Amino acid sequence: MQLALSGSRDERTALFRDTNKMLHVFVLKNPRLGLDEVQAAAKLPQLSPDALKMVAEHREWGSNPTVCASLVRNPKTPMPLALRMLDKVPLNDLKAIAKGGARDALVHAARKKLGG
């Protein structure tokens, strides 16, 4: 846990891939964590749902269109959260999701947003 809170970039990346889901939340609390690392983490299917929720609810990360698109596409993101994030997804990503780039409920919601 100490390593997650104060580790280097390489250590944080390794901890995001760790099977211990509790560590993911601690890595997200690391003050040196960059937006690019959060974007990469949001794509990881092994990231815990709690960590994904934490990313979505963060003021800076949750409003970043790239992070939102990654969260919506991540199969581990809780469905209600993914549906809320759909509003912040850029138009080109929304079109890709509507073509089948995510789970069925999200594909239908994206098509509905696009008017078709």
Q: How would you sum up this structure, described in words?
A:
The structure is a single chain. This protein is mostly helical and 116 residues long. It has nine helices and no strands. It has helices spanning 2-6, 9-16, 21-28, 35-43, 49-57, 65-73, 79-85, 91-98, 104-113. α6 (65-73) packs antiparallel against α7 (79-85). The N and C termini lie far apart (47 Å). The model has no long low-confidence stretch (mean pLDDT 94).
Short structural description:
With 116 residues, the chain is mostly helical. It has nine helices and no strands.
Chart the SSEs and their pairings.
Layout lengths: L1 H5 L2 H8 L4 H8 L6 H9 L5 H9 L7 H9 L5 H7 L5 H8 L5 H10 L3
Helix pairs in contact: 3-5, 4-6, 6-7, 8-9
Features:
single chain, 116 residues, mainly alpha, 9 helices, 63% helix, elongated
Helix content: 55-70%
Q: What structural class results from the helix and strand content?
A: mainly alpha
Distance between the termini: 47 Å
Give a quick account of the main beta sheet: strands, pairing sense, barrel closure: none
